[in-house]
Specification:
Structural class: mainly alpha
Strand order of the largest sheet: 1-2
Distance between the termini: 20 Å
Mean pLDDT: 90
Shape: globular
Radius of gyration: 23 Å
Low-confidence stretches: 1-8, 480-492
Length: 492
């Protein structure tokens, strides 16, 4: 299969931006998120909230009345407040357990489930409608369909509802599920993006992508079957990660919370623009992918505490995510293919110099420098190992499933059969939540990072089964007689 020329454009892309409904919708979404930021800060300030982190608990004017302190002193008889990594496993911004009622729990879970199911329903209806269209020029439009409008309205409504819910019953899902599940769902999303973008940018320094025709590139390039399946059905995993993380946190007026809600809101906005031309915009997609560098580093700094010169957590997250950006994500941009390959190493060399300088003064618990340098590779290792493992699991599942051809199927499924597979897919997502609940309920005594890695594995491999189920649902176009044509940037 041959990719189209990288300068390929859809026929109506020459229209001015103000004539494109998808761009106008995106601008309105960004304005909405900016207004939400103001509302979160304004509503929090109006009631005197100033809970920056558990380390400022005794300095805050209102936090001592609202929350329990971080479990710096172990409390053996209290779930989540003793054992390995208790301060990391305990989520600070939630109601003290004695104040939790069946109504606070019921409200937050109803909000989450309704939001999640509506988003999935719109996505499923859109994809079923579009699945029989052969031409990608017909699938993607500058205009919004009724499903785009529905998705935008649903997400806007639940953002406003969440703000109201925070200032009434307050609690979010953090009361019942482990914090590692919120982090793990986002890591799963980012791992899937590595596979989604693999076709066009490869794995390292833009290699081996479909634009590299050398013998080594062709020999080492991953089979595109699992990649195409993930590209086709990634929206369900992204919708789960965004909505689940959105409802995990209350809308607290801290910089870390606000930036997190901007991020989940931006992912929902991207999902609401499905099958529009702007959904394919590589600069917007890159921003969504690398936003975690700033957000992850900032949250880690906010919650890491003053020990080790304030460097307890943020270097691992900031430098770890930046590592992936410099050797993988950055090469989503086309200009790298137009210049000499040697230039691709420049961003990483700059990153390496900055990292070495910082770790020359970042201490460990004994005050030694350089010792913690190894932590920089933890996040990249998670990315690449799970990306390759996820590809392999899906490859094996597709080999076992003779109907997993992503392009054709001889006969359409009955409504009953479709319903069974859709239910099975959503049941797997429900199992993700159940596992996260059980980790919290049984107060599993493991380091938070280890719990997160376990959950990333569960989520990533579980989604491989979900893609197989969903592929049984979609009606397929008539079998193609000509070689397929691939757009360099089909979908995110």
């Amino acid at each position: 299969m041959k990719p189209l020329d990288e300068d390929h454009k859809f026929k109506d892309d020459e229209r001015q931006w103000y004539d494109r409904h998808d761009i106008i919708a995106w601008v309105c979404g960004v304005v909405f998120l900016a207004g939400l930021v103001g509302a979160i800060y304004g509503a929090g300030a109006a009631v005197g909230w100033d809970a920056k982190s558990g380390y400022t608990h005794n300095e805050s004017a209102t936090s001592q009345e609202r929350f329990w302190p971080e479990p710096f002193v172990p409390e053996p008889n209290v779930v989540g407040r003793h054992g390995v990594g208790a301060t990391a496993r305990w989520y600070y911004w939630k109601l003290p357990p004695p104040e939790v009622t069946r109504y606070t729990r019921l409200f937050m879970w109803m909000c989450y489930v309704c939001h999640q199911m509506l988003v999935w329903a719109v996505l499923l209806a859109t994809q079923i409608q579009k699945s029989q269209i052969m031409s990608r020029q017909e699938k993607y439009s500058n205009k919004l369909s009724r499903f785009n409008y529905m998705s935008l309205v649903i997400n806007a409504f639940f953002h406003l509802l969440h703000l109201l819910q925070t200032h009434t019953t307050y609690d979010a899902l953090a009361q019942d599920v482990t914090i590692a599940s919120s982090q793990g769902s986002v890591i799963m999303l980012l791992v899937l993006v590595v596979l989604i973008e693999y076709r066009d940018r490869g794995l390292f320094f833009g290699w081996p992508s479909i634009y590299d025709n050398g013998p080594k590139s062709k020999k080492l390039r991953l089979n595109q079957g699992p990649i195409n399946m993930i590209r086709k059905y990634h929206g369900y995993a992204f919708a789960w990660a965004a909505v689940y993380t959105f409802w995990y946190h209350p809308m607290e007026n801290t910089l870390g919370h606000v930036m997190g809600f901007v991020y989940t809101g931006a992912i929902m906005l991207q999902g609401s623009l499905l099958y529009t031309k702007f959904h394919l915009n590589r600069y917007w997609r890159l921003l969504l992918e690398c936003w975690v560098i700033i957000h992850g580093g900032l949250v880690a700094y906010q919650t890491g505490g003053p020990d080790l010169k304030g460097t307890t957590l943020w270097p691992m997250f900031a430098f770890g995510f930046a590592f992936v950006f410099c050797i993988t994500q950055l090469f989503s941009l086309e200009f790298w293919r137009k210049i000499h390959f040697a230039f691709r190493f420049i961003p990483f060399l700059i990153f390496l110099a900055v990292t070495l300088y910082c770790y020359s003064w970042i201490p460990d618990k004994q005050g030694r420098t350089w010792i913690r340098l190894q932590e920089v590779i933890r996040i990249p290792a998670t990315y690449y190992l799970f990306a390759l493992a996820g590809w392999f699991v899906l490859y094996c599942l597709m080999k076992c499933d003779k109907t997993s051809d992503a392009d054709h199927k001889e006969q359409p499924n009955s409504r009953l059969r479709q319903g069974i597979y859709v239910s099975a897919s959503f049941l797997v997502f429900a199992l993700f939540v159940l596992v996260s609940y059980l980790f919290q309920y049984y107060d599993v005594q493991l380091d938070l990072i280890l719990i997160m890695i376990i959950l990333v594995a569960v989520f990533t491999f579980g989604f491989c089964f979900i893609t197989i189920f969903l592929n049984q649902v979609m009606p397929k176009p008539v079998k193609k007689t000509q070689s397929a044509t691939i757009l360099p940037n089909e979908k995110f």
